[in-house]
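Dear colleague,

Thank you for sharing your sequence with our group. We've completed the structure prediction you requested, and as agreed, I am returning the results in plain text so they can be pasted directly into your records. Please verify that the sequence below matches your submission; if there's any discrepancy, let me know and we will rerun it promptly.
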Amino acid sequence: MARSNLLKDLVSGSTSIENILLRLKVILSDLEDESIMNWIDGELQGYKENKDVPNYRILKGNPTGTFIINYLTKYTNASVPLEHLLKKEEIDKLITLNITDSVAVIQTLLKSENRENYAKVIPTSFCHVISTEEIQIVAMKIAFYSNQLDGIVSFVKSKLVEVIMELEKQFENLDDLDIKSQVDTDEKKKEQVIYNIEQIIYEGSIEIGDKNKITKSRLGHLFGGKNEN
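Please find the predicted structure tokens below.
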């Protein structure tokens, strides 16, 4: 079976992932499936809601900052011992970040000088609230590593390869960016292709994000992803 230029361009890296997503968006629109298009649009434009973020975009960071032990010893740019200040589930919520940026924005960040400075900054007021007489937190951020962001890009690229290969198995002439006539001739085939692609994208479930809702707690609504400059 001859491979499409769409797949060749993706694998060779001769064009951007954004370009591949745009071409794929045109093709997949003929399937008329909302969940698939939401994924394409999320990777192209960014995800508007945390609940819509796929699992591979949910990262765990390292709490680092400046703190004082027993009003005597000061630590700077060190791992903050949160286990002495918060419950396990509170720590988990604090160090978790849903990456909502488009894949193009992530790639731009990875090419910048700030690639190693991606962090969620914790408000000073919250640091004061959780401080004790034994541990006084002066400043804190949740640091994320560039290889975690690289992992998102690689994961998206891998998913795109699988989606295109699935389309190649089912349809002809993908490079025409038009499979509507082929889709319209076989409704069962269309439904099967939609199911297969959803399984690829969402790894067996399209109900994403439901495990990542933050319940009301001391953490409140404080946090969004930021680049620390």
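Summary note from our side: The chain has two domains: 5-53+156-210, 56-149.

Kind regards,
the structure core
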